[in-house]
């Protein structure tokens, strides 16, 4: 496998971060588009971000000293500063156990079925297919706006709300292309998680390199 450039922890890739910014990491070799811009923050974000397109990233890192996997859309708080990105509200955080369930889901049949129903003149309806990841988190294959969508979402009630209140939903809708990109990066995420279990940080150079060559 040909060697490709990766972002070293504490280093800034050319044209990807403004002066004084703390790079959050991320090798463009693991994605189909360039490395994501760095967040301009005083906190070092110990996470790896893998692009899925349209500012959506698959990330793996630490939260409260525990490993966490995120599928989340980022945004530019300042449109004039393309090097500054922040995580948005659209997304879903997963524990390693929920991540394992996500990888094991038999979604291909549901995706093909939904895609057939998006073909013009195809008669008959289709019900969304929902899969449980645990802790009120789900994956749903459905048709949204005439296109197949793989939706990662969570059901919840606002803090303090009575059980009689309706359940609310939050999450993110992925296109088929984004889902396929996510699938192609599952082994890389697993490599990072394995290293973290052995006491490594996700942004360590050797961790990134082991995730690339799998």
UniProtKB/TrEMBL annotation:
Chain positions covered by the region annotation Disordered: 24-46
Gene responsible for this protein: LOC109476658
Transferase listed as a keyword: no
Main location: nucleus
Domain of life, per lineage: Eukaryota
Subcellular location: Nucleus
Gene3D superfamilies: Transcriptional Coactivator Pc4, Chain A
A cellular component annotation (GO) from this entry: nucleus
Start and end residues of each Transcriptional coactivator p15 (PC4) C-terminal domain: 51-104
Keywords: DNA-binding, Nucleus, Transcription, Transcription regulation
Tagged with keyword Transcription: yes
Pfam families on file: PC4
Protein name (Swiss-Prot/TrEMBL): Activated RNA polymerase II transcriptional coactivator p15
Family: Belongs to the transcriptional coactivator PC4 family.
GO molecular function: DNA binding; transcription coactivator activity
The protein's role, per its UniProt record: General coactivator that functions cooperatively with TAFs and mediates functional interactions between upstream activators and the general transcriptional machinery. May be involved in stabilizing the multiprotein transcription complex. Binds single-stranded DNA. Also binds, in vitro, non-specifically to double-stranded DNA (ds DNA).
GO biological process: positive regulation of transcription initiation by RNA polymerase II
